[in-house]
């Protein structure tokens, strides 16, 4: 019996190494896991956007309680990096990105099996440390030169959406830090290393009282969709299908709702 292990792989370097091992040691795609039972047991590796960390951890807890033979291993990180890993043949079963454009990279490379399915939507939030040391009142304050500001890099979805929000608001911000993903931005805010940042609404909710969320009408005008897709290199297609069905079904919806994601 494989048990109910749910492993969180920190960072993307581990999967990169595993991907290189797999790529060097296998001349063809792995065969379908014929040993997988009708209960779809086995290990399913999911490459998922960092902003899904809390929701997908809850989903795994619920799903592995229902299916003790199932292991779910996550690699959370920047969507653009995860998509590139999928394209390079990383030994993963499912890819979930924080926008359609990043998923399209994997689709166009031919590593996605079937059409991706959007499982959730998200919007942006303007956040500060809990005591708001920069006295930030709205998006226009991000143009102030006296503030320390953090955004995601423009090449990752949370950075692209931050640029879109600022463009809609007509604000020319000068970030002091460009982070690799939204979790890195949130860490800078909660540690008081910056005065303000743009993050996903769900990450602001997860931080609770550790940060302050500043209301701004412009933030509601920009949203992003999260597509999920099976990968052609999946080692356990039956188990991967079970996890995909959970993401799009009642278990996944409950976990995503709790984390603050909107329905597709």
Question: Any overview of this molecule?
Answer:
With 264 residues, the chain is of the alpha/beta class. Helix content is 36%, strand content 25%. It has helices spanning 13-25, 53-66, 79-87, 100-108, 157-169, 182-190, 201-207, 237-248, 250-259; strands spanning 6-9, 42-49, 70-77, 94-96, 112-129, 149-152, 177-179, 196-200, 211-214, 223-231. Strands 1, 2, 3, 4, 5, 6, 7, 8, 9 and 10 form a ten-stranded mixed beta sheet that branches.
**What is the helix tally?**
9
As a percent range, the share of helical residues equals: 25-40%
Q: Describe the largest sheet.
A: 10 strands, mixed
Order of SSEs:
EHEHEHEHEEHEHEHEEHH
Oligomeric state, counting identical vs distinct chains:
single chain
Mean pLDDT rating: 87
What share of the residues does DSSP label as strand, in percent? 25-35%
The counted number of beta strands is: 10
Category from helices, strands and their pairing? alpha/beta
Low-confidence stretches: 1-38
Q: What is the radius of gyration computed over CA atoms, rounded to a whole number of angstroms?
A: 19 Å
Gross morphology is elongated
- Our measurement of the CA-to-CA distance between the termini, rounded to an integer number of angstroms, reads 36 Å
């Amino acid at each position: 019996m494989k048990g109910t292990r749910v492993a969180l792989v920190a960072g993307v370097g581990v999967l990169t190494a595993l991907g290189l091992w797999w790529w060097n040691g296998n001349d063809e795609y792995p065969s379908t896991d014929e040993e997988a039972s009708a209960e779809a047991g086995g290990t399913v590796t999911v490459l998922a956007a960092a902003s899904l960390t809390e929701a997908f951890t809850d989903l795994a807890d619920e799903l592995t309680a229902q299916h003790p033979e199932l292991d779910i291993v996550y690699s959370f990180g920047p969507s653009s990096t995860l998509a590139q890993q999928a394209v390079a043949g990383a030994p993963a079963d499912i890819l979930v990105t924080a926008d359609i454009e990043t998923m399209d990279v994997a689709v166009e490379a031919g590593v996605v099996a079937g059409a991706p399915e959007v499982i959730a939507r998200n919007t942006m939030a303007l956040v500060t440390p809990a005591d708001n040391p920069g006295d930030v009142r709205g998006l226009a304050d991000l143009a102030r030169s006296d503030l320390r500001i953090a955004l995601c890099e423009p090449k990752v979805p949370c950075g692209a959406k931050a640029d879109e929000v600022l463009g809609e608001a007509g604000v020319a911000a000068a970030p002091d830090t460009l982070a690799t993903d939204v979790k890195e931005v949130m860490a800078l805010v909660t540690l008081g290393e910056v005065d303000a940042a743009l993050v996903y609404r769900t990450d602001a909710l997860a931080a609770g009282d550790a940060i302050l969320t500043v209301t701004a009408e412009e933030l509601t005008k920009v949203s992003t969709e999260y597509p999920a897709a099976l990968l052609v290199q999946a080692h356990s297609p039956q188990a991967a299908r079970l996890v995909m069905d959970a993401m799009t079904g009642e278990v996944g919806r409950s976990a995503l709702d709790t984390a603050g994601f909107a329905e597709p």
